[in-house]
């Protein structure tokens, strides 16, 4: 699959592209129910599944029906968790359904694309569709979708040879997906920073370089805690303090930040 620039999560499929975060440029396996439950803060905001921003998504589903239209082909999909349309927009000189290599009604297919909404109706703007030839791929997809959801929710499992995180009572944390937090900062210059500020810069340093910086919302969502509103408020003050101290700076606007060192 080739990399491409995806437009906003709403409006017509031909909408202009905008700068997206690193998370929005990734590919996430999901179920149709997750797409139906996805949320947007407003009509131009990014889509979120379980609170995490998504970009391209992939589903494996049964093709209930196919309807060829003048400008697009509509595939009605069902994966057992819900139903959704997948639309492939094509020019009039393309071969329509035939160009997807045997996608027909009644089979399972893998669809990759982005979640869109038009006229209050959600659909997948499909970039690729292909038949599933191995029955194990269906089960594998659901297991992969569950695994990714759990890792995003609770953190990655320990790597081979990595010690499990200990709880406050000194016992090993029994959660295989408990988040791993290092007590030592990744940069000695941050050793004297308050804990919240140190976690912020450690998180920023671990992210791939992004020219537009990291959005404050993504930084806040990466900080563990109970009350999301309280965490976001605390992070806002910590970001201001880090800017005043010269550890970070704002980039394309007042909500995007990058490390100074």
From TrEMBL:
GO molecular function, one term: single-stranded DNA binding
GO cellular component: chromosome, telomeric region; DNA replication factor A complex; site of double-strand break
Tree of life domain: Eukaryota
Polar residues compositional bias, start-end: 175-189
Main location per the UniProt record: nucleus
Annotated CDD domains: RPA2_DBD_D (cd04478)
Entry's Gene Ontology BP terms: DNA replication; double-strand break repair via homologous recombination; nucleotide-excision repair
PANTHER family: REPLICATION PROTEIN A-RELATED, REPLICATION PROTEIN A2
Protein name as catalogued: Replication protein A subunit RPA32
Organism: Obba rivulosa
């Amino acid at each position: 699959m080739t990399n491409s620039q995806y437009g906003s999560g709403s409006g017509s499929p031909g909408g202009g592209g905008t700068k997206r975060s690193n998370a929005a440029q990734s590919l996430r396996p999901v179920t149709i129910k997750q797409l139906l439950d996805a949320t947007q803060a407003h009509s131009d905001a990014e889509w979120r599944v379980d609170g995490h921003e998504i970009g391209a998504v992939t589903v494996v589903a049964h093709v209930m029906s196919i309807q060829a239209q003048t400008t697009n082909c509509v595939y009605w999909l069902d994966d057992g968790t819900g139903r959704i349309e997948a639309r492939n927009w094509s020019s009039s000189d393309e071969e329509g359904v035939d160009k997807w290599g045997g996608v027909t009604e009644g089979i399972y297919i893998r669809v990759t694309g982005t979640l869109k909404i038009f006229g209050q109706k959600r659909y997948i703007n499909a970039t690729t569709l292909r038949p599933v030839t191995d029955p194990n791929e269906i089960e594998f997809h659901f297991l992969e979708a569950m695994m990714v959801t759990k890792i995003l929710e609770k953190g990655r499992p320990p790597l081979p040879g990595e010690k499990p995180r200990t709880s406050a009572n000194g016992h090993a944390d029994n959660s295989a997906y408990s988040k791993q937090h290092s007590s030592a900062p990744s940069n000695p210059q941050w050793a004297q920073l308050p804990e919240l500020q140190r976690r912020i810069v450690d998180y920023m340093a671990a992210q791939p370089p992004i020219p537009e910086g990291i959005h404050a919302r993504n930084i806040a969502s990466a900080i563990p805690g109970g009350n999301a509103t309280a965490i976001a408020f605390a992070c806002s003050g910590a970001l201001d303090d880090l800017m005043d101290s010269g550890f970070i700076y704002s980039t394309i606007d007042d909500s995007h930040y990058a490390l100074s060192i």
